[in-house]
Amino acid sequence: MDKTIKNRREYLFLYDVSFANPNGDPNDENKPRIDEETGKNIVTDVRLKRTIRDYLYEFEGLEIFVREISDIEGKIQDAKARAKDFKNDPVEILENCIDVRLFGGTIPITTGKNKDSSITYTGPVQFNMGQSLHKVKLEFIKGTGAFASGSGKEQKTFREEWILPYSLIAFHGLANENAAKETKLTDQDLEYLKKGMWEGTKNLITRSKSEQIPRLLIEIIYKDGVKSHIGELHRYIKIESEKVDEELRNTNDFILNIDKLMEIIEEESEKIDKILYKIDRNLKLNKELSLKNIKFEELNF
Asked: Confidence band (pLDDT; 50, 70, 90) for 69?
C-alpha cells in the first residue's frame, strides 16, 4: 500500500439541487432539513459520505465496509457479520475498505465465544454539516399515482412530497495527516475522495436526488510540517443577486463572490503548498481563482 499522507488538506465543496430533496428528515415527514432560525437548507455530513461511498463502490469498483448487504432471506447484514467478511481482522479491513481509511468507524470484532469487542478508528477526513448559502423555499407537491387506491376502486393513490426549488449547498472538510497514520490513508485515497464528491453527486440519479450538480471543489494542500489550517472556508463566500434568496432557481440568478476567500488564502499563503480546484462551466465567480504567490492547478477528472 502507498505511504500515508504527509500534508494536511482542506476542502470547500459546493453543489446545488433543483426541485429535489437533498436530505430528508425521517423524523419530520422526510422534509428537506431547514434551520428554522436562518431559513437555510441543511445537509448532513452522513449524506455526503454516503454519496462518496456509493460512487466508489458502484463506479470505481472499490470495496467499502459500510454498505447494505442482504442474505438469501432478505435480512440486512449487521456490522458484526460484515466484520466476519474480513475474518474479524482490523488490518484486513483497513487494507480493503477505502471508506474506513477515509472516514473511520467503529468495527465490532468477535474474538471467541461471547467475547465481543470493538475497535474505533477516528476518520482522517471529516466534513461539517453542509448548509445552503441562502434562504430556501420549501414547497409541498401532491399528485396522483398510477394505481388504484384499493382493489376494485376507481380512485387513484396520491403521491405527496416536499421539495426545494433551489439550494446551493456548501461543505467544508479536512483531511488530518495525524489521524491518517492510524487508518493508513494515502494520497491515492484522497484522489478517489475528490472524484467521489464530484462524480458521485452527478450520479445521484434517483427521483428525489436528481438534478444535483457539483459546482465548485477547492482543495488546499498545506506545506510539510504545517499543523494548522484556515477553517470555515464556506464562511468566506457569498451569493450576489438582484433576486431575493427564495426566488433563486439556477446559477444564472447569481454570482458567487469569493473576494474574502481569496483574501484569507493570500494571508495564509506561506503555509500553503498549492491549491487544486474544479469549477462547473455554469457557475459564475466574481473573479478568477488565481494569486501571484500560490500555485493553482485545475483538476481534470
From this structure: confident
Instruction: Please give the helix or strand (H or E) that residue 246 lies within, else none.
Output: none
Would you say 119 and 90 are in contact if contact means Cβ atoms under 8 Å apart?
yes
Could you tell me the CA-to-CA distances from 192 to 33, 38, 173, 261 in Å, in that order? 28, 34, 15, 25
- CA dist 184 and 186 (Å) reads 6
Please give the pLDDT value at position 148: 53
38: CB partners within 8 A, 6+ apart: 135
Whether residue 5 contacts residue 187, with contact meaning beta carbons closer than 8 Å, is answered with yes
* C-alpha span between 238 and 257 (Å, rounded): 5
Are the C-beta atoms of 53 and 64 separated by less than 8 Å?
Answer: yes
Largest CA distance in the chain: 74
Percent pLDDT > 90 in the chain is: 81
Cell of 101: 481509511
Q: What are the extents of the domains in the chain?
A: 9-67+121-298
